[in-house]
């Protein structure tokens, strides 16, 4: 299969993630859609690594996975903190920065 | 054979992505994302990225998704809108934006004219993407990135613990302050620290 097909799958997954972030209101699902976008970027990086016969793109993808794990840890910590304060788990309700 | 594997894996990945966005229950959305990750790992295997595919399945589908499942079980799977929705207008604009982005990326990829994109890839050799090669890169050329990634993981883990810790005895339950945690006034583990700090500093000077 040519590399273009992989890049198209990556683009479609990325746009599905964008649509999810824009339309969903539960912060848990928004985090999941961010994961979708990061994974789409990973797929594109690995596809380009394969196209050029160079593994440095795979290293980049692994670092992106580390950053995604950090984002998940902090994001889920925020959601648990929200739940403990009995704040609504809804991004439309959480518009104010001040507590 | 490679074509069949590609289309099956791509269909699994796309169906998982669609399910993540469309399913109402966050628990099912997490399960759909696990399905998406498995399909993506198969695509990575087809791209000869063996170590990345293994890390994807073990780290993402194994560890991170378990974290998600626990948080969904703790918070509860409700997805009831509290305020009325902004109506179909906002949703239509969001979908329009996403499809415009898709068209733009497709034009950028197909119109880039890179000759290498129409091939199956070049320069494959025995051991491409194997753990030995990846480890060698991480410990020689990308050592700084490797160490920074470990530091970032440590910072994120500590930050997540501070954010999600149980606050008992707060007067105003809506107050959230990291500085207070560091001072150790209201935290559950702060009293012991304060004692040792005061002992170390001695009695007030003035």
Fill in the keyword field for this structure.
heterodimer; A: 99 residues; mainly alpha; 3 helices; B: 206 residues; 68% helix
- Which structural class matches the secondary elements of chain A? mainly alpha
Residue fraction in strands of chain A = under 5%
The percent of residues in helical segments of chain A reads over 70%
Low-confidence stretches of chain A: none
User: Which stretches of chain B of 5+ consecutive residues score pLDDT under 50?
Assistant: 189-199
**Terminal Cα separation of chain B, in Å?**
82 Å
Estimate the mean pLDDT confidence of chain B: 80
**Count of individual helical segments of chain A:** 3
Count of alpha/pi helices of chain B: 8
Helix and strand element order of chain B: HHHHHHHH
Question: How many strands of chain A?
Answer: 0
Q: Biggest β-sheet of chain B: count, sense, barrel? A: none
SSE topology string of chain A: HHH
Radius of gyration of chain B: 25 Å
Descriptive overview:
- The complex is a heterodimer of chains A (99) and B (206).
- Chain A is an all-alpha fold and 99 residues long.
- Helix content of chain A is 77%, strand content 0%.
- In chain A, helix 1 (3-23) runs antiparallel to helix 2 (27-52) and helix 2 runs antiparallel to helix 3 (56-84).
- Chain A is elongated.
- The mean pLDDT of chain A is 88.
- Chain B is mainly alpha-helical.
- Chain B is 68% helix and 0% strand.
- Chain B is built from eight helices and no strands.
- In chain B, helix 1 packs antiparallel against helix 2 (26-46).
- The longest helix of chain B has 26 residues, at 50-75.
- Chain B starts with a helix and ends in a 5-residue tail after the last helix.
- Residues 189-199 of chain B have low confidence and may be disordered.
- Chains A and B meet through helix 1, helix 2 and helix 3 of A and helix 1, helix 2, helix 3, helix 4 and helix 5 of B.
